């Protein structure tokens, strides 16, 4: 299944869990072996493979154990590697701000 914006969060979690389980099996590694290598309990691995939430640190440990940590870079790409970063006078933003709308005083001309 392709992950896209139309999928619900639980469907995405289930798909990720299914992919992870297949990677583990193809590695080949049992849950017990993965637990020993990643320092994550077998129960946590089983919960994750069934689509439950296990926390970010545990996910990172599991991905490292299966040698998939480089794929994390695809999850949230480095903003300094975007083409717009290399444009002159491009300073990184410190925070997001909403734009002010100043069209309150603008009228079509037929209003009273």
From TrEMBL:
<feature type="compositionally biased region" description="Basic and acidic residues">
    <location>
        <begin position="101"/>
        <end position="112"/>
    </location>
</feature>
<dbReference type="InterPro" id="IPR001387">
    <property type="entry name" value="Cro/C1-type_HTH"/>
</dbReference>
<dbReference type="Pfam" id="PF01381">
    <property type="entry name" value="HTH_3"/>
</dbReference>
<dbReference type="GO" id="GO:0003677">
    <property type="term" value="F:DNA binding"/>
</dbReference>
<dbReference type="InterPro" id="IPR010982">
    <property type="entry name" value="Lambda_DNA-bd_dom_sf"/>
</dbReference>
<protein>
    <submittedName>
        <fullName>Helix-turn-helix</fullName>
    </submittedName>
</protein>
<feature type="domain" description="HTH cro/C1-type">
    <location>
        <begin position="20"/>
        <end position="75"/>
    </location>
</feature>
<feature type="region of interest" description="Disordered">
    <location>
        <begin position="81"/>
        <end position="112"/>
    </location>
</feature>
